[in-house]
């Protein structure tokens, strides 16, 4: 309430309201006396009623202070009621005393009654019927304003807490995604260095140099990519050094087929989504069979969904291609966790075998045009709110 009492707008509204009510009462007094055959001047009608309303406004801050200081919270009700009973009596006496003095002895000359006689008359007529009602009405207004202020403050605090919570959860989501992404780097690095050591033992120096160069490119690109999500075109570019490394290892045994629809290239995908899927296909598919093999990468837009499949011509999944088969190691488990973190139930990762032979991994995510990291964090905030 103290905030409103310091507001010029609040006081302007009070004064205008009191003026309008006072003018209405003056019209009633003027017309009533005229109908009874005792007409009075309009100035007398105004001066008779208007001071009482301005006195009420003048005393309002004191009533508001008492109402705020002595509220009716549990444990304080008896004391507050006693204070307000005394306050209402004091308010009525002071209000009638000031209003009578102003209207009858300052603004009106030759008033027929003495001050105390007139004061007793006013107390008898108006004290209970009006003044006590005014006091408790002001107490009620004070409580209503205080309740409104506290409610809005709690709303602001709740909104601030929700915003802070969403920011923290967004940061946590990003940290979780980054941790999952960084798990892929040592996993892939170990496998690649193992392949390099095998080639070095065979004396294939040019192949070793080429693999180390591609490995350097791949690590540089992966560490430079800090966004949790990237366009599919960028993800495909990030996959190229890895494919070159594997083609050095397998030479003519590995054929990579890319079937990427143009309208899917700008779609948002998790960073390093394809590399563990393709690595899984090469390691558990192509490497497990002698002779040439094929890895096919497909991506297409299907209404509001993006579908990506990685298929190989290897021996396929064991355990009927179900989840938890021997092929679902770090790469697939990590990818599944990242998809859950990013999209929740809106993402699908399925593994299985195809009738022609080989394994298939299918990923379906909501189709979104990539807008950068800001859009990702905004979505995390909206999901947390």
Q: In CATH, what is the class of the largest domain? A: Alpha Beta
Number of strands: 7
Helix content: 55-70%
Distance between the termini: 31 Å
Number of domains: 2
**Rg from C-alpha positions?**
41 Å
Average pLDDT number: 77
> What shape does the CA trace take?
rod-shaped
Output the strand order for the largest sheet.
2-4-5-7-6
Low-confidence runs of at least 5 consecutive residues: 320-326, 374-385
CATH architecture group name of the largest domain: 2-Layer Sandwich
Main sheet characteristics? 5 strands, mixed
Structural class by secondary-structure content: alpha+beta
**Assigned CATH superfamily of the largest domain:** Histidine kinase-like ATPase, C-terminal domain
- Could you name the CATH topology of the largest domain? Heat Shock Protein 90
Count of DSSP H/I helices: 10
SSE succession: HHHHHHEHEEHEEHEEH
Proportion of beta-strand residues: 5-15%
Overall description:
- This protein is α+β, with helices and mostly antiparallel strands and 385 residues long.
- The chain has two domains: 2-161, no CATH class; 204-384, Histidine kinase-like ATPase, C-terminal domain (Heat Shock Protein 90, 2-Layer Sandwich).
- It is 66% helix and 12% strand.
- It contains ten helices and seven strands.
- The chain has helices spanning 2-5, 8-35, 42-69, 77-106, 115-202, 205-224, 232-250, 274-284, 330-343, 373-384, and strands at 229-231, 254-260, 268-270, 293-302, 305-312, 348-353, 359-366.
- The strands form two sheets. A five-stranded mixed β-sheet has the order 2-4-5-7-6. It has a two-stranded antiparallel ribbon with strand order 1-3.
- Strand 6 and strand 7 (359-366) form a beta hairpin.
- Helix 5 (115-202) crosses helix 10.
- The chain is rod-shaped.
